[in-house]
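#dry-run=false #mode=assembly
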Amino acid sequence: MARHITSVLARLYLALILVFLYLPIVIMMTMAFNTSPLYEFPFEFNLIWFKALISNERLLLSSLNSLMIALANTLVATVLGTMAALGLNRYEFRARPLLELLLLPPITIPWLIIGVSMLIFFYWTGIGRGLHSILLGHVALSLPYVIIVVGTRLKTYGPTLEEAAATLGAKPSQAFWRVTFPVLAPSIMAAALFAFAVSFDQFVISYFLAPPGVSTLPVEIYTSIRKGFTPEINAISTLIILVSMGIMLVVARYYRFGGER
Amino acid sequence: MSRVDLEHVSKRYAAVAALHDVSLSFRDGEFFGLLGPSGSGKTTLLRAIAGFVEPDEGSISFDGRRVENVPVHKRQIGMVFQNYALFPNLTVAANIAFGLSVRRVTGAEAGRQVSEMLELVRLTGLNERKPRELSGGQQQRVALARALVTRPKVLLLDEPLGALDRRLRQEMQVELKDIQRETGVTTIFVTHDQEEALTLSDRIAIIDQGRLMQMGQPREIYERPATIFAAQFLGDANIFTGKRENDVLILPGGERIHAPGTAATVVVRPEKMRVFAASRAVPDEASNRIEGHITQAVYSGASVTYHIRVAWRVDRPLLVFAQNLKGEVLTPETSVTVAWSPEHTVPVET
Amino acid sequence: MGGAAVRQYRGIIALTAPAYLWLALTVFLPLSAMVYFSFLTQAPIGGRAAEWTPAHYIAFFTKEVYWRNAWRSFELGIYVTSLCLLFAYPAALILAKHVKGRWREALFLLVILPFWSNALVRTFSWTMVLRGDVGLLFTYWAIVIGLIHAYLPYAILTCYISLQSIDDTLIEAARSLGASPVQAFLRLTLPLSTPGIVAGVILIFVPVIGSFMEPRILGGKNAIMLGPLIENQFTAVFNWPLGAALSFIILAIVLLILLAASPFLRRQLQ
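#status=ok
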């Protein structure tokens, strides 16, 4: 009897947690489809705010910027990160723990601090602000994730696969392309999607490195929020959240979190 | 098929000597076992032959040609790893054909050789399976086929049967031996299982702490171990230490046993000893005798293992293996005489 | 060192250099630059001269307003971290031990998903909920709620990983020795899951004390914390060296926390 009650309570608790997590998102999405520009009930389905997006040039331009940067970021971070993961995990060498440790700062130090320091450094060295600086910043944030994701898979399989290929006569490059790469492919894919999401959703760094007049979508949303509510923000936010959740669902299919399997 | 020679090979990792001045020759076509406890350096030795480990000193030669500077993929070896290392994204056939494809053998010819190999390891028909769909024993055979299809000069096996259960191990041991005889390839395998080493090898080398302890045919090493380590690692041993008086060794209990040689420590194998209850007569040729009483009689069907307590031997009982000739088992507390003939008293270094 | 070893090292360098050089250029050098900056009188840009001064740090330690900001950030960190873990641990426990099979994976995914979506948008969505009649918008508690919402999945994740790695047979052994479920939990499960809790504490506390987006959006004028204060120095007041100094102080705290807990973190990473 007691077990039954605890079971029910447990499920209830989880349900409450899920409600808490999804409530604001659901409300925001509801408002995006609501006619009222003041977020007031009663609810009347309408697509006007989505339609308004199309004519909002600033939002469109910043979305384009976000997309371009995210794609460039994905390419650079995935390639560089995969290479680094290979270098780190193929052999044991003394400096390895140190190098692995160096991956922690970009993901544990608050973005505010990283953003501020980038701003200072880029100004000082003449790199300045701009889309290129934002790209520099995003890749820096994505690299550790790529390296860890790909590296974990490499650790699981160990160097034995490449060793086996070598005993069968394969040159190191052959061994990589014919054995290691196919085995790594799912995690490289997951890492790439990860990198895309990290860049597309990134706000803080973009905020500091964006010059006046140029921005990414999150920055644009932020300035609109600061200026005052506009219902189009709801619409674009709904779209963004659906996109980033969608990406993450795909990643989850390739790469399991929570240490299972 | 190659001869492999190691001369004064040494390897250190930080301050630890993984291999210390090891010199060994592997004859063309023989099935050679590297036996030793974990951490003894036997795997390091195997990997040095493969080329994954570069020796700090010494030379390794295949058929007289030195190979220390030859990279792994050019050494023409075949290797079966402990975890098989089958390529998970390739089918069984593609795995086996891998070595061929690297040598530009593809298409029908490759298919023919793959089928030949599958037949050799008795896995015909499993071409299209993926490694994860196979059992442990099947994976092991695929790994073997993959290593053999390229007709390597040397076949290296790293604890190949470690992951299999007992019955499968015994089956695979027989098959491995058959396959090796058929292909004639020089085979060097690493194991910590002394029974496996004894049954499979033409010759064995015992390695401990990076050093070559003893090498020779299984029978040689088993009957005449050179050290206490070899005696205890390869089978069970009764060890006696005493005072020398020419060719007699005086044991702590006063017993005088005839022991050839000059060593103060000798080893007698349990199956060489016989147990006689007080009433029975002891044959003359079994002239080395010790009195004691039985503490345990372990009946295992074909044989009985007696644990015998000798008054002055406090640390461990005497072990005697008795063939179950008459279906009689002596009971604990029985006083007995343990006897064996002097020629089975083996002097050892400590 | 033999030929093969040299080849290995060259290979490693060739593979890892690009990524690490990028990190050096965009993270490590800038952080050093920031530290250097914090000791200057003014930003040495546009031809202005600057002298070395510890004035900004002295100001931090002496002026009350800065202390108050720092304290509020710290306080916020403590509230958010403890509340997060309080709510997260039971959820993680339930997921790890009570739910089985496909449900577990699906629920886990549902819990983690919001965390990996756009943080800005999620914070914004809270403004929808807290405004108007609810009346909580632009209060301190709005910030707390928003931050808990942001980091709760993270806390559940770290606790879950830790709990899930506890072998069920250990609990069974404890029960067979006479321990009640509660005893088994307190004496076995809880202690064994501390790495997850510690990881959660660090991975929540650190970003929270350095956050500025959530305080600004949800707290409005009530966002009197280090994060927004630092942001101000760079976007409104243009006192970059002061901003750099304050940032470095946060960085130093972060590094100290990481150092103190590095044994725990290393275990989690594996």
